[in-house]
Amino acid sequence: DIQMTQSPSTLSASVGDRVTITCRASQSISSWLAWYQQKLGKAPKLLIYKASNLESGVPSRFSGSGSGTEFTLTISSLQPDDFATYYCQQYNTYSGLTFGGGTKVEIK
Amino acid sequence: EVQLLESGGGLVQPGGSLRLSCAASGFTFSNYAMSWVRQAPGKGLEWVSAISGSGGSTYYADSVKGRFTISRDNSKNTLYLQMNSLRAEDTAVHYCARALTHCTNGVCYSGAYYFDYWGQGTLVTVSS
Q: Please, which residues 2-31 of chain B have a Cβ atom closer than 8 Å to chain A?
């Protein structure tokens, strides 16, 4: 299986900060990467697919970039509603779909 | 509006069985692959299984292969997960999710899914 490694595991930030989360794949996955947001006790929500495509209805302050093995999720100006845990997921080919370990964004 | 509603979770003893259901509405169910993803208490997300829109192709994580069976009834707009030989490590909230794949030059990669809609989840607890 392809391993997905996210960093940092926890991030403390303030409202208005620019936040960047990194996801690294153990082998190339082209651009087949999705990002999800999960709030406590809730189901995950799709934010970005194909590395940089914003899902409909997701605020434009969220953006994704990268290809191959290194990817980033950026929140340009952190809002109170953005404090949550974020996961990346690769869907390159069927070799076992895998998620990163998650990044918890906390209030500083 | 797309809605996915899981049911069937509960407390079961190690070695026991449970069948989860996911009732779908708001979209043409047979046109979409579906999947199960789980989350152990306080842990991250783990993909469990997926099935193509027709039900003809199924996929499993190594951790559940041979113990779990995914199926669907397109006439009832319902997804299922039959879980046998349950272990303590299967304790988790189990989510059903609508699955999308990518297509390049007319070739679509069945099994290579990401998930655009999720249910609220159903908790499975395996304990004696």
A: none
